[in-house]
Design a protein that fits this description.
Helix 5 packs across helix 7. The strands form two sheets. A five-stranded antiparallel beta sheet has the order 4-3-2-1-5. It contains eight helices and eight strands, in the order H-H-H-H-E-E-E-E-E-E-H-H-E-E-H-H. It is an alpha+beta fold and 303 residues long.
Length: 303
């Protein structure tokens, strides 16, 4: 190893120092650009969020609340994804600028990502399905829905699962990737549908008129007026049962009020039918005891 003079050492120090300073300067510039990009992306997403929320203010109150939550959730997710992506690019570019060989690092990260991907297929599927689930606004927290045949109140929605609480208080949790059918019973408006049976001897026109009168009285009640959206829809005689003529009707209500409105309508309709003498049929069964059967047979034979 040959000896270096002071001038040579000083020249090497200056050369490598300048190179290191230049690399550090480039790294700092890359970090600054990344920081500016993150700030700009965050500001753009906030602007997009405010524009979408302003459009949502034109919707119904219940729809607006759900839409605002959905918009904030999606923009929050997009902000996180954009921030992570930008800093990942900044990190890789900085390592390259410092002269490090990032090929093995990227190869190792790719293999690790592939292994994690195989092991977490269901998790990735649930998160992707959850993203579109929230974006499409299929159901919201507070809705009553039927998911995969199970009904209940939607208590929470995350990017991986949706939770329902049924009438008995049991909480059912469904991963988004496993959801095959969704029926929302409170989106926009709800409805109470009634198949009302009356006896064959009754006049269906009179029964329908009583239904309209009961509904008009109920809609004039301040307690229920705000829950009802439109006039009652009576579709007419829908079918002929074994012991009843079935009249089908529907009442449109605000979301989640169809059951309270329907129960009150049934109560008032029963009292109105009783007052008018309109019969609501029910099955009849005659039971004969053995002694009565023998007596009836003997009487018939003697007769």
């Amino acid at each position: 190893m040959r000896d270096f003079t002071w001038d040579q050492w000083r020249g090497l120090i200056v050369e490598y120092g300048a190179a290191i300073a230049l690399s550090v300067g480039h790294v700092l510039l890359i970090v600054l650009i990344g920081w500016i990009a993150v700030r700009a992306a965050r500001r753009a997403l906030r602007k997009l969020e405010s524009v979408l929320i302003a459009r949502a203010e034109q919707e119904d109150f219940h729809e607006r609340q759900g839409t605002e939550r959905r918009i904030k959730t999606l923009t929050g997710l997009l902000t996180t994804v954009v921030r992570i992506s930008i800093w990942a690019v900044v990190l890789v570019t900085s390592l390259t600028e410092l002269g490090l060989n990032i090929g093995p690092i990227l190869a190792g990260a790719g293999i690790a990502g592939l292994a994690v991907g195989f092991g977490a297929q269901n998790l990735v599927r649930d998160i992707i399905a959850g993203f579109f689930f929230i974006m499409e606004n299929q159901v919201r927290v507070g809705d009553v829905a039927i998911i995969n045949g199970t009904g209940g109140l939607v208590e929470s929605i995350s990017f991986r699962t949706i939770s329902l609480r049924d009438l008995r208080g049991v909480v059912h949790i469904f991963p988004h990737g496993a959801v095959s059918t969704v029926s929302n019973m409170s989106k926009g408006w709800s409805a109470y549908v009634l198949d009302m049976g009356i006896a064959y001897k009754e006049n269906p026109d009179e029964a329908i008129q009583v239904m309209r009168e009961v509904f008009a009285e109920m809609r004039g009640d301040p307690e229920f007026a705000s829950r009802i959206l439109e006039d009652i829809e009576i579709f007419g005689v829908d079918s002929f049962g074994d012991s009843a003529v079935v009249v089908k009707m529907r009442i449109k209500t605000v979301p989640l009020q169809q059951w309270s409105v329907g129960r009150e309508f049934n109560r008032r309709l029963k009292h109105a039918f009783d007052a008018r003498g309109i019969e609501i049929p029910f099955p009849h069964r005659t039971v004969y005891f053995p002694d009565e059967i023998r007596t009836a047979v003997r009487t018939k034979q003697e007769g």
